[in-house]
Amino acid sequence: MKTQTGNLQESIARQREHLGAGLKQPLHDLAEACSDVWGDRQRLNEALTQGFESLPNAMFLYALDHNAIQLSDNVSQSGLVEKDFGRDRSQRPYIRDVVPSNDFLLSQAYISLRAKRPSLTAIQIVRSAKGEMLGYVGADFDLRDLPLTSSHYQERNDWQQIKGDPAIRGTVFQQTRIDSRLDRHLDDVMSVMESLIIDRGVFQAVLHFSSSRATIWTTDDPFRYRLLNVDALIAPDVCLAFAPLDYPEEANIPAEDIRPILAGIRDLRFIDDMFYMRSCSINIFNGMVSITFSCDGTHYLPYDEFLQKDTQFWLGTPVLD
């Protein structure tokens, strides 16, 4: 499935817009059908049962009075749940929201009380023939039953800085970088990492300097990670354990920039004995480099911006902010 530009919230908004557009008319028609039999529990159940013809993905349908007290049973595809007759739904999140002027509301997602599943509810106001508000018709949906109607969102590719553990930040001035085995062989490690990324299909790599290890993912087996300890990382023949693969054309980081990125990472490891880099990652498809410092703050930045910054920039950057 192709990705679509825009951040996470924009993608959610697009998905909700598509879902709402598909639910408005069926809920409006169902509300009209219920209006004709309002107050009659059995006939409301019958009208709601017929509503599944136009709302096949719904988990439950029900009718509520203007105080959000349930006038029908919970109606499902498999039958009636009678114990919900008379249930007070006034404190549920989809009732506390203000219903817009078009009488239709698609709630924010919430965790259902019984199934403990991410869910959402569509609410339609029910009106009499004279336009007086009688109550509501509600339709509950389990998110896994709803079709994805818009493309996956694309992760942001601008610079982000994320604060870490306050306990670590509070003791940063008491820390001193200690050379690890990986540090002592860092030039060899970076040469191995370059070969793995450019020639052996590694598209994401995370280097943990203090614990002297790396976690890698490959394009020919992307759902499993490989953990390489320092002995593997300093041995060039580790490359023989991975099939030769062409560098992906769709990668957002050019192959010729991998070496300078790794060189910049190497320099950052030794930039300062107090504010030092603890770990880093590179993803050639996202086009991003991440750096986590000793204060536990993490920077995510596009590779080209990373290449533009020298060590003097990082020495003057308030990494604690």
Keywords:
26% strand, elongated, 321 residues, five-stranded antiparallel beta sheet, 10 helices, Beta-Lactamase, seven-stranded antiparallel beta sheet, alpha+beta
Structure description:
A hairpin with a 4-residue loop joins β11 and β12. This protein is elongated. It has helices at residues 8-35, 41-51, 93-96, 166-170, 181-184, 186-199, 230-233, 258-269, 303-308, 311-315; strands at 3-4, 60-65, 74-76, 79-81, 104-106, 110-111, 118-127, 133-142, 152-153, 160-162, 202-208, 213-218, 221-229, 277-283, 288-293, 298-302. The longest helix has 28 residues, at 8-35. The chain contains ten helices and 16 strands. α1 crosses α2 and α6 packs antiparallel against α8 (258-269). A seven-stranded antiparallel beta sheet has the order 10-16-15-14-11-12-13. Strands 2, 5, 6, 7 and 8 form a five-stranded antiparallel beta sheet that branches. The chain has two domains: 3-145, 2-Layer Sandwich (Beta-Lactamase); 156-315, no CATH class. Helices cover 29% and strands 26% of the residues. The protein is of the alpha+beta class.
**What is the approximate shape?**
elongated
Distance between the termini: 37 Å
N-to-C SSE series? EHHEEEHEEEEEEHHHEEEHHEEEHH
The main sheet comes to: 7 strands, antiparallel
What is the topology?
Blueprint: E1 3-4, H1 8-35, H2 41-51, E2 60-65, E3 74-76, E4 79-81, H3 93-96, E5 104-106, E6 110-111, E7 118-127, E8 133-142, E9 152-153, E10 160-162, H4 166-170, H5 181-184, H6 186-199, E11 202-208, E12 213-218, E13 221-229, H7 230-233, H8 258-269, E14 277-283, E15 288-293, E16 298-302, H9 303-308, H10 311-315
Parallel strand pairs: 1-9
Antiparallel strand pairs: 2-8, 3-4, 5-7, 6-7, 7-8, 10-16, 11-12, 11-14, 12-13, 14-15, 15-16
Helix pairs in contact: 1-2, 6-8
